[in-house]
Each structure stands twice: as structure tokens, then as C-alpha cells.
Design a protein that fits this description.
Length: 268
């Protein structure tokens, strides 16, 4: 038996709903083999409103992990939280050296519930070094505004404008996640491949238990690309997978509610 293999270059969410933890659960649910290169460790302070802190991992250790995984070979990969500019540079170097083409860039800048960019210095490096290597990038509304330098995005026309700018930066495709942040009756994401704008919609769930939704979405795209789907088909499938996970989000403690990564398979 063989399996399609995926890599996630991302951070650890100690609380288990987002980051590498979300990616591995999503890979498993989508029947691909997941390998991990850990970039940073995120912890939350239970005595200070669950405020997040990020401890990046030494770049030499990240490189050892990537060398292990890339010696095996992969069918597709994603990036998530990247920890430092050095790690972004390393990621870009490896993607080029191994000619990796199915590369999903989830340009993580913020965690939900936090109102500041966790590591502002990483935004320019992601824009300049990683977007040109992306088969697709998956910013949320805030991240799309930062990458495209449009400022806050509030409308679907604003999303279209940012999508065009993000393709000019070199990404082959983009899906901007309107999610809960867009003032719209549905949860609307905008997919753009340079020629066609496609709105992906599902019912907006009235919940705050969406921790890890973005990681789950990008990991599901990655898994479907690894299995041979087109970028558009992989994105449509990931939207459905993530919608089910959000519909069954649950309360972990008084601060956070993760999505249920296995809901799509358990409820279909
Ligand atoms: N309340 C919600 N109901 C339904 N879908 C949602 C909701 N919030 C987010 N989504 C969807 O979940 C996916 C991840 O989006 P989002 O939560 O905005 O990303 P991130 O976690 O990176 O901020 C997108 O497909 C988005 O449309
Ligand atoms: C390691 C890590 N990656 C990514 C994220 C972003 O998660 P989301 O999928 O909710 O955007 C978080 C948020 O806590 C995180 O801790
Ligand atoms: Mg996100």
C-alpha cells in the first residue's frame, strides 16, 4: 500500500485545536500521511485571559526536520505559523531546492481572540519570499489586507481587489476567507485563479468555537492536492470539510473552543 504524503511547516498549538495539531488531525481525516516540521511553540497564559506567546524554534533544528521529511519526499505541503524571518527564508530555500510545486501558504499573522499581529516582521518576509512560491495562499480577511496593503477589507469588492493584488505578488491562486469577519449573511470565501472569481458560501454558524478553522481549511486543501485534486476542487472540498468542523465546534474551557476536526467524516 502507498499513501500520499504531506508536510506541514507550522507551529505547535499547545491547546490542540490549531497549528500542527489541527493539520495532523485533518491529514488523518483526509487519509494522507502527515509529517511535521515544527517552527514555534505557542502557549497560552491561563492567568492572563489566555494571552498567547510564541517561542520560535532554532532555525538549525527546523532545517534538520525539513531534511528528514524531504529526503522521504512529499506530494504537497503547507505552511502555517512560521516563527521567525530566518525560518521563512529557510522554508523558501527548501521549496526552491526541492522544486516543490503543491505549496499551500497559510499566512498566519494572528490568532483569533488576539487583536495584534503576533510577529509583524514576518509579514514582509512572507509576502516577498513565500507568496511567489504558493500554488495557493489562504489569508483571512485581516491577513489579506496586510499582504495586499489595502487596509481593512469590508466588502466582496474589497476582497476581489485584494485577491488581484495578491496574485500580482506571485501566488498562483488565492482564497480569501471572509468567514465570520465579513458582514454578510453567509460565510463567504473568495477564490481567484487569475481569470475567474468564485464565491464559496456556506451557512454562517453562530459560534465562537472556531479556533483552528483556518489551519484546518489549509490542511484540507493540502491533503486534497496531495491526492491529485485540482486547486479549485481541493479548495471546494476543504470548504465543506471545514464547515462541518465549525458546525460541531465545542468548548474546551472558558477561553477557547476548537473546531471538531473529525466532524465531516463522523456526520456524513
Ligand atoms: N462562523 C462561521 N460559520 C461558518 N463558516 C465559518 C465561520 N467562521 C469561519 N468560517 C469558515 O472557516 C474557514 C476558516 O476561516 P477563518 O475562521 O476566517 O480563518 P482563520 O482561522 O485563519 O481566521 C473559512 O472557510 C471560513 O469561511
Ligand atoms: C501554532 C498556531 N498556528 C496557527 C494558529 C492560527 O489558528 P487559526 O486556524 O484559528 O487561524 C494558532 C492560533 O492559536 C496557533 O497557535
Ligand atoms: Mg488562520
Amino acid at each position: 500500500m502507498t499513501m500520499n504524503k504531506t508536510l506541514t511547516l507550522a507551529g505547535s498549538d499547545s491547546s490542540g485545536g490549531a497549528g500542527i495539531q489541527a493539520d495532523l488531525k485533518t491529514f488523518q481525516e483526509n487519509d494522507v500521511y502527515g509529517m511535521t516540521a515544527l517552527t514555534s511553540i505557542v502557549t497560552m497564559d491561563p492567568n492572563n485571559n489566555w494571552s498567547h506567546s510564541v517561542d520560535p524554534i532554532n532555525v538549525a533544528i527546523v532545517e534538520k526536520q525539513l531534511n528528514t521529511i524531504l529526503s522521504v519526499g512529499i506530494d504537497a505541503m503547507k505552511t502555517g505559523m512560521l516563527g521567525s524571518v530566518d525560518i521563512i527564508e529557510l522554508g523558501a530555500k527548501k521549496i526552491a531546492a526541492y522544486n516543490l510545486d503543491k505549496v499551500v501558504i497559510d499566512p498566519v499573522m494572528v490568532c483569533k481572540g488576539e487583536d495584534e499581529v503576533l510577529q509583524p516582521e514576518n509579514t514582509n518576509a512572507m509576502r516577498e519570499l513565500l507568496l511567489p512560491l504558493a500554488i495557493i495562499t489562504t489569508p483571512n480577511l485581516f491577513e489579506a489586507g496586510q499582504l495586499a496593503k489595502t487596509g481593512p477589507i469590508k466588502t466582496i469588492d474589497g476582497m476581489k481587489n485584494a485577491a488581484e493584488k495578491i496574485l500580482e505578488l506571485g501566488a498562483k491562486n488565492v482564497v480569501i476567507k471572509g468567514g465570520k469577519a465579513l458582514d454578510h449573511e453567509k460565510a463567504v470565501d473568495l477564490f481567484y485563479d487569475g481569470s475567474e472569481f468564485l464565491l464559496l458560501e456556506n451557512a454562517k454558524v453562530d459560534t465562537t468555537y472556531t479556533h483552528g478553522a483556518g489551519c484546518t481549511f489549509a490542511a484540507a486543501i493540502t491533503a486534497n492536492l496531495a491526492k491529485g485534486k485540482s486547486v479549485k476542487e481541493a479548495t471546494i472540498a476543504a470548504k465543506e470539510f471545514t464547515a462541518a468542523a465549525i458546525a460541531h465546534g465545542w468548548k474546551l474551557n472558558q477561553f477557547v473552543g476548537p473546531v471538531k476536526h473529525g466532524a465531516y467524516n463522523q456526520t456524513k
